[in-house]
Sequence to fold (209 residues):
Amino acid sequence: MSAARAGIPIVVAAPSGAGKTSVCRGLVDLDDGIEFSVSHTTRSPRKGERPGVHYHFVDASEFDRMVAADEFLEWAEYNGNRYGTSWDAIEGLLASGTDVLLEIEVQGARQVRGRLPAARLAFLVPPSMDVLEERLRGRGTDSDEQIEKRLAIARTELAAVGEFDYALENDVLERCVADLGAIVAALRAGDPAPLGDRFDPAAVAARFR
Ligand code: 5GP
Fold:
């Protein structure tokens, strides 16, 4: 029997509130061949978040230790907290042939591009900035000040969409999950032709300029 193929690392970046978690969760639930990478973070758990499932919650000194020991593929500071993908979170999965979704922000995505050439990068955009703001407010987890900060970060993140391999709009959740599934299927087949220019980042970048 031939060795199983290595899994594909797939970065999904998006401004906070674009619905990235729901879209990624939707795909992982439908597809046994793909799993989440569980990140480390120094932020406190939100209600309902479980250690080891949503994040590995660590304090600043443990995060410092991991950075110094080069245990991260990538890490970044976002909104006052640090987040990182450890090599441990992805290597075993990739080696066993499981594709891995890295749900991370833009600075981290750039590091992955530089350090993991096999990775493919998708960027999820909201239908508009107004919709993004509505979603952040509807979530009810952040203060007004936090929401303003997240919107300011979102504007700078959206300016980076042209650096990605694919751009997807999250208008209707099920459609976006299917779109991400189509991208993953094309990557597995090693043939991007069926995708045409549907997910062309340049076209999406023009909308948010
Ligand atoms: P939240 O605090 O809302 O869970 O996450 C804030 C931001 O950090 C989101 O854009 C999320 O995707 C990103 N993030 C989560 N884990 C990682 C990680 O391991 N690395 C990087 N660079 N960003 C991450």
Observations:
- The helical segments are 20-30, 60-68, 87-95, 106-115, 129-139, 144-158, 173-189, 201-207.
- Residues 56 and 70 are 17 Å apart (CA to CA).
- The chain has a mean pLDDT of 93.
- The two ends are 51 Å apart (CA to CA).
